[in-house]
Amino acid sequence: MPYHEFQCSKCIPERKQHAVVKGEGEDLTSALPLGYLNTIPGTISERGCAYCGAKHVIGTPMKDVIHLSHGPIGCTYDTWQTKRYISDNDNFQIKYTFATDMKEKHIVFGAEKQLKQSIIESFKACPHIKRMSIYQTCASALIGDDIEAVAQEVMEEMPDVDIFVCNSPGFGGPSQSGGHHKINIAWLNQKVGTVEPDIKSDYVINYVGEYNIQGDQEVMIDYFNRMGVQVLATFTGNGSYDDLCSMHGAHLNVLECARSAEYICNELRRRYGTPRLDIDGFGFEPLGTSLKKIALFFGIEERAQKIIDEETARWKPELDWYNVRLKDKKVCLWPGGSKLWHWAHVIHDEMGMDVVSVYTKFGHQGDMEKGIARCEQGALAIDDPNELEGLEAMENLQPDIILTGKRPGEVAKKIRVPYLNAHGYHNGPWKGWEGWVRFARDIYNAIYSPIHKLSLLDISKDEIPTDKGFETQRMISDADLPDEVRNSPDMREYTGKYNCLKDLRKKTYPPFEHNVLADAV
Question: What range(s) does the Nitrogenase/oxidoreductase component domain occupy (predicted)?
Answer without folding.
Answer: 49-447
